[in-house]
Amino acid sequence: TQLLEQSPQFLSIQEGENLTVYCNSSSVFSSLQWYRQEPGEGPVLLVTVVTGGEVKKLKRLTFQFGDARKDSSLHITAAQPGDTGLYLCAGTSPTGGTSYGKLTFGQGTILTVHP
Amino acid sequence: NAGVMQNPRHLVRRRGQEARLRCSPMKGHSHVYWYRQLPEEGLKFMVYLQKENIIDESGMPKERFSAEFPKEGPSILRIQQVVRGDSAAYFCASSPRRGTGSDEQFFGPGTRLTVL
């Protein structure tokens, strides 16, 4: 069974601070996706990283996929109150077998950015 | 461009009743995944379906739960004889083709099931 360990579980910071959320596994993933989920809503896809070592930027958000494709990080620069929410990482299993395509989710990071 | 649609958004059932959750994938998407989010837990995979076929049901409880994705109409997740432990948010996601590592899944708003 593949597992994704996400940390920290909770993060409370002031507006303007930087933060990093980590997602680690002992297993290799074909790709890793980051989602943001608001209360009462479904996860919204932020980014997909596929290649080991890949870095993607989305405005103030920077996503990185580890060289071995076992870990990923999300870095937010100059956090704003609008960034508050639940952030989830999810990995897609490598090809082959019946696990093909399904997502394995981390436990999530609840981010609160105070004005 | 409508996204993934799920209904109902909220469903209340008494123990022993049946719950039917519906999911209409995004236009052009023929692959549907169901996930369950229990209180204080992350999302857990339940089942992966294509039109008229169940591809992977390794995350489905062996009893009382079933899923289908008919040729016409939405995908249905059916829970028979619900128990309080079934109370959770159930999410459907759709993908344009079989997950090849880079294929993205787009989630619906979820159905919140409460079992009294």
Structural notes for this entry:
- The complex is a heterodimer of chains A (115) and B (116).
- Chain A has strands at 5-7, 10-14, 19-24, 31-37, 44-49, 55-58, 61-65, 71-76, 85-92, 103-105, 109-114.
- Chain A is mainly beta and 115 residues long.
- In chain A, the strands form 2 sheets. In chain A, strands 2, 4, 5, 9, 10 and 11 form a 6-stranded mixed sheet that branches.
- In chain A, strand 4 and strand 5 form a beta hairpin.
- The mean pLDDT of chain A is 91.
- Chain B is an all-beta fold.
- In chain B, the strands form 2 sheets. In chain B, strands 2, 4, 5, 6, 9, 10 and 11 form a 7-stranded mixed sheet that branches. Chain B has a 4-stranded antiparallel sheet with strand order 1-3-8-7, with no helix packed on it.
- The radius of gyration of chain B is 13 Å and the shape is globular.
- The model of chain B has no long low-confidence stretch (mean pLDDT 91).
- Chains A and B meet through strand 4, strand 5, strand 9 and strand 10 of A and strand 4, strand 5, strand 9 and strand 10 of B.
Major β-sheet annotation of chain B: 7 strands, mixed
| Rg of chain B, alpha carbons | 13 Å
Helical content of chain B (DSSP H or I, runs of 4+) = under 10%
Principal-axis shape of chain A: globular
* Chain oligomer state: heterodimer
The residue-averaged pLDDT of chain B reads 91
Mean pLDDT of chain A: 91
The secondary structure category of chain B is: mainly beta
Helix content of chain A: under 10%
Q: How many alpha or pi helices of chain B?
A: 0
Number of strands of chain B: 11
In this structure, how is the largest beta sheet of chain A organized?
6 strands, mixed
Question: Regions of chain A with pLDDT < 50 over 5+ consecutive residues?
Answer: none
**Straight-line N-to-C gap of chain A:** 41 Å
Question: What low-confidence regions of chain B span 5 or more consecutive residues with pLDDT below 50?
Answer: none
**What amount of the residues of chain B lies in strands?**
over 45%
C-alpha-based Rg of chain A, rounded: 14 Å
String of helices and strands of chain A: EEEEEEEEEEE
Which percent range describes the beta-strand content of chain A? over 45%
The arrangement of helices and strands of chain B along the chain is EEEEEEEEEEE
